[in-house]
Amino acid sequence: MEGKPIVMSGIRPTGFLHLGNYFGAIRNYVRMQEEFECFFMVADLHSLTTHPDTKELKSNVHRVLAENIACGLNPDKVALYCQSHVHETTELYLYLNMLAYKGELEKTVTFKDKVRLQPDNQNAGLLTYPVLQAADIILHRASLVPVGKDQEQHLEMARNFANRFNHRYGDVFPEPQAFNYNDQLVKVPSLDGAGKMSKSENQMATLYLADSDDMIRKKVMKAKTDSGPTEQNSEKPPYIENIFLLMKLVSDGAVVNEFENDYNNCNIRYGDMKKQLAEDMVRFIAPIREKVEGILGNEAYLKQIMETGAEKARKSARATMELVRESMGLNYF
Ligand code: TRP
Fold it and tell me: CATH 3.40.50.620: which residues of the chain?
């Protein structure tokens, strides 16, 4: 444990992860757990800023835990916990709020986006969302944060808050940096040839880890193709390139090469290619889906995971908070 860089990241409990989440984020976590001391947290408090109705929170939290574990995150190797179980987070959030300025918070891109989406609920939690995120990270004095591009501004704010704290009260926090394995920045294209797989866009063009075998086949077979190239070695249109990209993620290299050759020789049969891709996707997704179902059916296991994770996270949080209170001068005895 000593000496290893500390990794922290948060996962929104929005349920139902898709292939883009798997190749974009989870696979990185699974690799990082072997090299670093990792804290992975389900951001249930953050979700209250946009979803005040908590009816589905429990099942969403369970699902996101189960899906991450089924994808290879090992609760024995990492601290996998829920944000609301570690109360030190909210204490640190409070202190950091005094170091965060209204002006900079109002300028945050995600804040402006959400104000547009929910004009009738411009709550202060939404405004201070990046402060809570900074608290999550620096609570463990983490230096590496595996996140996508959309989180870079939040991370920069976390660095600012950490630096401001250090400057005012003394050096407690390292500067957290975004981290990604260079070779793993894969974008998973959507099946309709437009953009990446995403939750909010076309659902039929996104493969979920919870999709049934038949649903996977149906989605893959609907992917856009055409009548094929007419000139040898021609460039692929983007929607065809995407099918190849998806195939590279889940199919055998030799199989991909065969279809590349067929394409280059103008005798590719897209129906066959999609059938192959569908079966390889099923082979990839089905075991994950089945594992998720198994975990979701075992509430006792989920409870034990959450308890153990929270215990590990609290231990690290308590140590940081001792330093925080001490350096702030909140020690009156
Ligand atoms: N805001 C992140 C997202 O939308 C989730 C998150 C919460 C997070 N706390 C974090 C990410 C701490 C990294 C570190 O995906």
Answer: 6-186+298-328
Asked if 51 and 126 touch (Cβ cutoff 8 Å), the reply is: no
What dotted CATH number matches 203-292? 1.10.240.10
Tally the residues of the chain.
333
Known active-site residue 114:
yes
Residue ranges, CATH 1.10.240.10, the chain: 203-292
108 CB near ligand 1 (under 6 Å): no
Reported as type and span, the H/E element at residue 80 is: strand 79-82
Q: Is the pTM of this model over 0.85?
A: yes
- Check if 12 has its Cβ closer than 6 Å to any atom of ligand 1: yes
Distances (CA, A) of 198 to 202, 330, 333: 8, 45, 53
Chain segment 49-81, per-residue pLDDT in tens: 999 999 999 999 999 999 999 999 999 999 999
| Cβ 43 under 6 angstroms from ligand 1 | yes
* Strands 144-145, 177-178: pairing kind: parallel
Please provide the DSSP assignment of 190-222 as one string.
Answer: -TTSSSB--SSS-GGGS-BTT--HHHHHHHHHT
> Which pLDDT tens digit goes with each residue over 273-314?
999 999 999 999 999 999 999 999 999 999 999 999 999 999
> ∠203-207-212 over CA atoms, to 5°?
100
